[in-house]
Amino acid sequence: MVRKFSLLLMFGALCCCYGAADSISFAVPVEWRMYSSDGPVNAFAVQNDAVWMATDNHVLSVMKRQNRIDTYQQMDGITAVGVTSMATDASGRVWIGGPQGVAVRDGGFTAYTQENGLPSSSVLSVAAAASGDVWVGTENGTARFRNGAWTSFTTEDGLAGNRVQAIAVDRSGEVWFGTNRGISKYNGTAWTTYNMNNGLSWNNTKALGIDRTTGFVWAAVGDEDVNSFNGEEWRIFMQIEPGINSIMVCTRSRVWFGTEKGLLRFNGEQWVDDPESFGFPISRIGDTFLDAEGNFWFGMEEGVMHHDNPYPPQ
Prior knowledge:
The chain is mainly beta. It has a single domain, classed as Methylamine Dehydrogenase, Chain H (7 Propeller). It is built from no helices and 32 strands. The chain has strands spanning 2-5, 9-18, 24-36, 43-46, 50-54, 59-63, 69-72, 74-75, 78-79, 85-88, 94-98, 101-106, 108-112, 123-128, 134-138, 141-146, 149-153, 164-169, 175-179, 182-186, 191-194, 205-210, 217-221, 225-229, 234-237, 244-249, 255-259, 263-266, 271-272, 287-290, 296-300, 303-307. It starts with a strand and ends in a 7-residue tail after the last strand.
């Protein structure tokens, strides 16, 4: 079902640039834009011509250049209610995962469930690789979509746990899986697992983020811990913030965490959670995304906000 609404876009100009490690100074104009929704955004994905977002009740497609919002209650027979994750693949298709499966938007919707390829229809996470592969995390393992076919992986293959709550792909193409029993890395052939026995402070991993420049891996684990991996060892940050649901690592190794309370930033030395210090409007954060141009995207209480790259090329 598709319903069309008028599109409300909010625009703002901020004068900000990042100064000292724990501060923001206001000097260079930076623009933000809000793509509005009718409720809190739990997940979103950015296409060339649209922003897709999921609220508690449906999925919305916001056309960037047209005064239009399309809403969907069903996607090829599976519900658009309770969507947990979205991603845009290398071909520009949007993948939308939820409690009944995953749907891919390519003109129309095509749905995949346990009956036609997934290890479980309960989808918790979705990630797309530059290679064209799409990975889906479920309650009972993960699955890779490649050349029109699914391949499933579970603990029997080397996955740390079958409840796959987060997926991230690093700069070398290796795939990281955050599970309820630790973190696994898959290089296409072999699996490596990290848990409380070899570096993590907790096994239950809620979110993952990877630094494009250094390759560092960031993870939200347990109830409120953050762990970081430099390729050799894990660094543990204890009792940082409850309810971390997404991690975005920007190009200068500053790390942003979306939480149920708002936004948290780590600048390498300090944790900053004062909303006024960020220089733009802020509320509950349901999802985050750093695009190829270094622009920030935040899924918030009333829509998705685009924030211009604060570190443009000199």
